[in-house]
Amino acid sequence: MESYFRIGVITTTHGLKGEVKVYPTTEDPHRFEELEVCYLLDRGEYKPLTITGCRYFKNLVILGFKEIEDIDQAMLLKQKELYVDREHAIPLEEGEYYLVDVIGSTAVDEDGNVLGTMTDYLESAAQLIYIIHTEDGKDVLVPAVDEFIREVNVEEKRMVIHTIPGLF
């Protein structure tokens, strides 16, 4: 299982004192207020950053970090991703799972026939969509709703999909 979860992408700098604007990729952008530390993914390594300030501007979060003191240092962070460790991730409710934990799951139909592997997901305005890569090299888009996704077993990395004619 993944140890880190992406919570945002640094879009640009803000001001001269090293603050950055972050596009949140988490369900709750206000979670930044409660975080003391997040991790910057830099050249395959997770580097801790201590959050010293948090405020909001339109759909962005403006963050200050103890380790970043001026605009020159902040410029180097553009387009880098911010993460949180599993311990500080948003707690799950009963029956919920982290999407990153189901990537790589084997997708089967209700009879147990292998359909492919879940390789990624898309977030649309209507709902989440799972991308299932089939054995013949096609990518099939399956809405992540109860009508299609009958079961997800994170421990076994397996999901059961109700298929309809034309879906696969």
Largest sheet: 6 strands, antiparallel, barrel
Question: What is the tally of beta strands?
Answer: 12
Which strand order spans the largest sheet, edge to edge or round the barrel?
1-2-5-4-3-6
Residue-averaged pLDDT, rounded? Answer: 92
User: Given the helix and strand composition, which structural class is it?
Assistant: mainly beta
Order of helices and strands: EEEEEHEHEEEEEE
Q: End-to-end distance, in Å?
A: 28 Å
Q: What is the number of helices?
A: 2
Q: Helix amount, in percent?
A: under 10%
Q: Segments where pLDDT lies below 50 for 5+ residues? A: none
Strand content: over 45%
Radius of gyration, in angstroms, nearest whole number = 19 Å
Global geometry:
elongated
Could you please describe the fold and organization of this structure?
The protein is mainly beta. It is 5% helix and 48% strand. It contains two helices and twelve strands. The strands form two sheets. The protein has a six-stranded antiparallel barrel with strand order 1-2-5-4-3-6. Strands 10-9-8-7-12-11 form a six-stranded mixed beta sheet, with no helix packed on it. The longest helix has 5 residues, at 71-75. The model has no long low-confidence stretch (mean pLDDT 92).
What is the topological layout?
Elements: E1 4-14, E2 19-24, E3 37-42, E4 45-57, E5 60-65, H1 71-75, E6 81-85, H2 99-102, E7 106-109, E8 114-123, E9 128-133, E10 139-143, E11 149-153, E12 158-161
Parallel strand pairs: 7-12
Antiparallel strand pairs: 1-2, 1-6, 2-5, 3-4, 3-6, 4-5, 7-8, 8-9, 9-10, 11-12
